[in-house]
Design goal:
- This protein has four helices and six strands; from the N terminus they run H-H-E-E-E-E-E-H-H-E.
- By secondary structure, the chain is an alpha+beta fold.
- The chain folds into two domains: 44 residues; 149 residues, no CATH class.
- Strand 3 and strand 4 form a beta hairpin.
- Helix 2 packs antiparallel against helix 4.
- The radius of gyration is 38 Å and the shape is rod-shaped.
Amino acid sequence: MSDPRAPSLLSPASRRWRALLRLARLLGAVALAALVAGVTWRLATGVRFGRAPEPPRVTHDVVVQQLRDVAKLVSTEMTVRDVVVYEQTRYTATKRALLVVTGRVLAGIDLEKGADVRIDHDARRIAVALPPAEVLSVDIVNVRTYDERAGLLNPWRPADRDEIQRRVREQLVAAAEQSGMLAHADRAAEQVLRTLLARDGYTVEIRRDPVVVAPRR
């Protein structure tokens, strides 16, 4: 067995050649590892060799889901108070009621009434058509009657109570609309949509389509 402490029999040139060979093998292993890592990353991220990565695209389903989220988030609620006067005459007898009503009115966007999404990926533009905001619900919180009269020939009937309820709701809706509630809901929806969708280089165009209301019969 040879003694490791014995002097090497290789010449200085041979030792230098072997050192260079080991260094070349080490550099080759490092380069191969880097190449494998690069290929793996490109395959995982969908990037092809020789081509720049494609910019991210906004899908139709994502925009529709965000529309639904916005419709829930930007609903506007307002407490409204109004005076309702009801009068009805029959057989020269007039019944009358004066009421002070308080209600909560909820306004927002009903996506079932004409919402539409169009995406132009080449122009990086999202066009959204929304119906205008409308009153979605009315919750009557309190009703106080300050004056109520009726005659023998014209007593109060269930139909009168139903008519008063209808008028109360109509006046609460009218009061909420006159306060600018619907315009506020429209602006809030537009602002939130632009914030959510204007990303990845896309511009947002929002259009308001009028709602066709069938005439009452």
